[in-house]
Protein 1
Amino acid sequence: MKNLLPPNWQVPNLGDVDTKDKWLIPPIVDLCGRLREPGHQSHGTLASEGKAARSNGILHIVLPPDTDPILQSGSLLKGLREKAYQDGGIYLHILGALTQDLKGEQPANLAGLKQGGAIAVSNANRGFANDMVLLRTLEYAATFGLKVFFYPDEPSLSKGGVAHEGYIASFHGLQGIPWLAETIALSKQLLMVEETGLTAHFSQITCRTSVELIRWAKQKGLPITCDVAMHQLHLTDDDIEGYNANAYVLPPLRSNTDQQALIEGLQDGTIDAICSHHEPLSSSAKQAPFAECAAGISNFDTFASLGCKLVADGLLTAEQLVEKICTAPAKIAGISDYEKIGGAVLIDPNQSWTVTKDAMLSAGKNTPFMGQTLYGRVVHSYFDAIE
């Protein structure tokens, strides 16, 4: 067995489980998972998605604020965290709304959100009325010492788009989303981070220029981190060919050149973490024509396997993978009691399994990996939370 737990981490009693050729890692920390509750339980619940997460080694999940109702009241957060633990056995780390109703017009009650235990604030993937609102809101967040999570996107460039702007989108007659939609927003946000002095995290970057901009900002010493969604490391816009709705996700799958830059960014430390960007959907949500169906990929069930593939392909070492999906995300999310909560996950990096609806525990079966044989599986989780 390869022990990949951090130094001084308590090793659990492994019992009589066969540990030969397996990895023992700390609990996975997911920096972006939409669990669909509250507000969209037809796609998933805290119980269903919590079970899927735990069974796949994910114990800590960062929840964006764009639920229904929007997470803009500090009084709501404690109850939601307790329900997530009671129903699904997971630790929820909540992003509060940066602006009222996420409309990008006026700041939300940031003091109340901080008091309610929000780990950071975000406007999710919603835009702002103008740059002055963005600047003043960020200044306001800085006064409370709140970290801001950005999902960089310029709505005036991405609105109506459903795929990466390129040959594949053009061939299929789909409206494209240019890479500039991400990088223009990212450039603006980086400059405002520098101006306001706040700490920021950029989630789900997708393109080469974004990696270059993050690298430049880190070299300048800006207090920033970033992550990439796991599926961006394994899929490109080629995978939407034939109007494959299960590969429809926002931000979109980008080009092979972008994917290579993302991998290089992981390898050199520019990209700090890998998130799932889990978005479970009911079966009917993917049955409309490509441009009219709901965007999203259900990722909890395939996350560990796809991570193992990065190691098998020689793109990351096992130690680097643990850093990207466990220890670095815990630091980014400010989980001060990560080690105290403890736990461990035993992974067999060589175990094969076929992705089927029955094999997936998430209520959402919307995955472009359906029918594929993957290698790497969580064989046991040693969690102290409810079973």
Note: The radius of gyration is 20 Å.
Protein 2
Amino acid sequence: MALADTGRSRGILGTVPIAVASSLAVTLNLVTPAQAAPREDRATDRAGDTGEVSPLERAALGSTIGMTPAASSFTSAPRTAVADAPATYRVQSGDTVSGIAARFGLSTAAVLAMNGLSWKSLIFPGQVLALAQAGAVAAPAPAAPAPAAPAAPATTVYSVVRGDTISGIAGRFGVTTRAVLAANGLSSSSLIFPGQQIRIPGMTAAALDTPTAAPVAAPAPVAAPAPLPTASAGQVVALTDEMRANAQLIIAVGRRQGVPDQGIVVALAAAAQESGLRNVRYGDRDSLGLFQQRPSTGWGTPEQVLDPTRATLAFYGGAGNPNAGRTRGLLDIPGWMGMSVTQAAQAVQISAFPDAYAKWETSARTWLAQLG
């Protein structure tokens, strides 16, 4: 039995790599590192050396041989550089977080953080762990700047001059009439006056000064419209040539249509209040002509309401109404003969200033008496 054991021990030693045997000896403090180095005359180093392995050595050797395959398998998987680490890793049986981190050259803390794990967390075969950028966390990208608050719409202020209308002002600035009304808290029935400040939404004052693509000749200066005549109760306003011509036309049309003198006085007072007895080409919003009739409310096209004769026929209404079915003239107002001059005029004109016609009554009656 002793011979068999000795032979078997020698057989085992014969299969142990020299490096392992030397390592074993150092581990057991049997020799120093220098003594562990193999020598060709090892058999004659000390007298009585038979090559047998003592029981203590055999036990240690057996343990070392058992450990060797495990150590070999642990170190056989190459470490992967961080730059080559996969984005994810599927956990295998026997894996640990620290082992996975070491395998790919990452820190355990980084792998835990990337996967929302703690040091007490368990992992399971088949579980997928994130590894991308776990080893070297890139500096956070600079936060995108917060979007700037939208600039308030640019607005310029326009000072109304005589003859302006909201629609005309809006068209001059290239915006809609509705936008200008809304920006100024006005309605479609609002009146504007010379000197009134009108806000133009979405425009700047520089818009008026934008140069054209090609130089153009400066337009000839346009004379400001003559101021409208004013009146007060009991006063007779003197007629200019233009006013007289239009007063005569209103009287003549009334006579042809069989309108009573009271109706002609109403027409003269209405035209005096609305246009100063002038065929003006401007007014509130789209109002035009002697009676400031509005194309947008059915009184006719701009050309039609600027025709003094047609405009007068439309004011009188009745059988000669050119807008029959669309607008209502004086003769179409039930009981107009029993109304005051200002009430009758207002019934046709529907003005924002219903009492304004009264101050022209004295002048209207005088003009009719003078012109006929």
Note: Confidence is low (pLDDT under 50) at residues 1-77, 134-139, 205-214.
Protein 3
Amino acid sequence: MKTEIFGMSLPQLQTALAELGMKKFRAKQIYDWLYQKCVFDFAQMSNLGKAERQLLQETFSVLPAEIQVVRKLDSADGLTQKILLELPDGNAIETVLMHHDYGYSVCVSSQVGCDMHCAFCASGLHGAVRNLTVAEIAAQVYLFDARLAAAGERVSRVVVMGSGEPMLNFDAVFEALQFLHQPDVANIGYRNMTVSTCGIIPGIQKMQKLELPINLAISLHAVRTELRSELMPVNQGFPFPDVIAAAEEYAVSSGRQVTYEYILLADINDSDRDAELLAEYLRYKQAGVNLIPANPVPEKGFFRPKMQRIERFVSILRRHRIHATVRKEMGKDINAACGQLRAAFAGEKAQGTRS
């Protein structure tokens, strides 16, 4: 069985090559091919000897070359691309590339599926299958980097906001972020990384102990206990006032403002009273609110508020001096498929197996 080379640290790779009788300096050359040139085929690593390339091919696998792109959706404005990836074990995950005026960001998944079962999210329809590895998380960035390389572009920001709860795969997520931060890998600054959680307090506390200036985002979505528990069952184990308290400790410790994500659902959590309560809970906190007008899901009773209601919600928060923005709608025409590409793919595979 081949050893996975992608995601190895440079010392690990040097040791692995030494065991094959290869010179230490070859590790740096391979690192350059993989992480600077985005070349994942040993046969194309032209400054290595033919025998060495053959030995590498027989010994190692390179994950980005093993992952299959099985679906690709491009937004009409050309600024957003969502891809469904089939991993070598047959599981599938989604990841998204977004083009901003400051560069490119990638929203990565941390698990296959999700166990949070948020009412408005398709990612958790079938629960979590397994955690992703360090290599599988980092590879999501590099699959896009390989596409951008021809234009001389690179991914400059990473958001762990895809399928899965990052704090339930803490070690792999933060090892992947530290790997991507390395100058000889993706060289992405910690301040350009964001981890979003539904409110797993032990994970927030562990994140604080790392003392890395990574941005923290909290999926809040309601500030009435019964409503949040209905929308987000995680609230029963980690009540949102305790989550906000833990997030504020992180903000004070890291010096990084916490972002609270709040999906606006018409006639559910978008009233004046909801806005007033949200402002009350976040008053004097190092916090900003990112409001997300919902994509309609009629079968679940979720509808997008009218623009007048959205503007009213924002104005109430700002009146209380809470920094609030409405999320820029990039690729609105493909956002509705969030979590559904994987579900549809799984259904097709199951159908194929039965037939």
Note: The chain has 13 helices and 14 strands.
